Amino acid sequence: MKALVLAGGRGTRLRPITHTSAKQLVPVANKPVLFYGLESIRAAGITQVGIVVSDPRELLEPDRRTGELTTVLVNSQAEIRAAVGDGSAFGLEVTYIQQEAPLGLAHAVKISEDFMAGEPFVMYLGDNLIRDGIRMFVREFESEKPNAQILLAHVKTPQHFGVAELNGDRVVRLEEKPQHPKSDLALVGVYLFDRTVFDAVRAIQPSRRGELEITDAIQKLIDTGKRVRSHVITGWWKDTGKV
User: Fold this and answer.
1) How far is 127 from 162, CA to CA, in rounded Å?
2) Is residue 67 part of a domain?
């Protein structure tokens, strides 16, 4: 099994912290949040990791003092590469996969197909913190052998998240930020897939925001008769995309 870690994005919701650092390198308890994910992956017995990074680009952003628009060079790729290197410090073998634009989580899966080479993989969003790690999650996937497995958590405001509707542990429907949620089970930023996910990401269309959504790809798996199961965590998790 391999891992795909997503470490792109501008981190605009974490301004002003991310004016000077990639959002995945913001420290939590004096350790970059990305490092927790890499350590969890290694603890689950996975050593081959593809890290999706964004191309350097110029953005127009307001100056913090004057409010005037100024050109800012965003090069989180260089920061991620400098911090993680070849992965040997974590006991990993890291390959960097460039995403030319923030085109969605399913697009990140799509461009990783050659790296995966037909193997199942865990996809881990690099700005997530999960107290109990992912070892049990991965062991369940290896034992049950579904086509996909998603990590879920009970939340108080499911309308702010992707929400899963279950039949036992089987996922029957996913809905992104529903006005009337069918459950309080929100998608956590960790997913497990076999090779069938690549057919799913090729079959979906961009959403209204112009991105290939991972929820649409998983729903495509469900709609085509693939087995998608769930694992509900009991410990806390944090999406550090916001302060």
Assistant:
1) 17
2) no
Q: For residue 56, what are the domain limits?
A: 2-62+72-239
Across the chain, where does the E strand assignment appear? 2-6, 27-28, 31-32, 48-54, 57-62, 69-74, 93-99, 121-125, 128-130, 148-154, 162-167, 170-176, 185-193, 228-232, 237-239
Give 119-145 pLDDT, tens digit per residue: 999 999 988 888 888 999 999 999 999
Bridge partners, 230 (sequence order): 150
The domain that holds 85 is classified in CATH as 3.90.550.10
Identity of the residue numbered 54: S
Domain assignment present for residue 117? The answer is yes
Q: Are 90 and 39 contacting, i.e. CB atoms less than 8 angstroms apart?
A: yes
**What are 176's strand-pairing partners?**
162
130-to-37, 77, 219 alpha-carbon distances in Å: 8, 24, 24
Closest to 189 measured CA to CA, from 113, 115, 112, 134: 134
- pLDDT tens-digit series, residues 35-65: 999 999 999 999 999 999 986 554 545 666 6
Domains of the chain: total: 1
DSSP state of 165: E
* The residue to which tokens 């969605």 are assigned: 104
Given a contact cutoff of 8 angstroms between Cβ atoms, the answer to whether 7 and 76 are in contact is: yes
22 occurs within a structural domain: yes
Rounded to two decimals, the pTM is 0.84
Tell me, what amino acid is at 84?
V
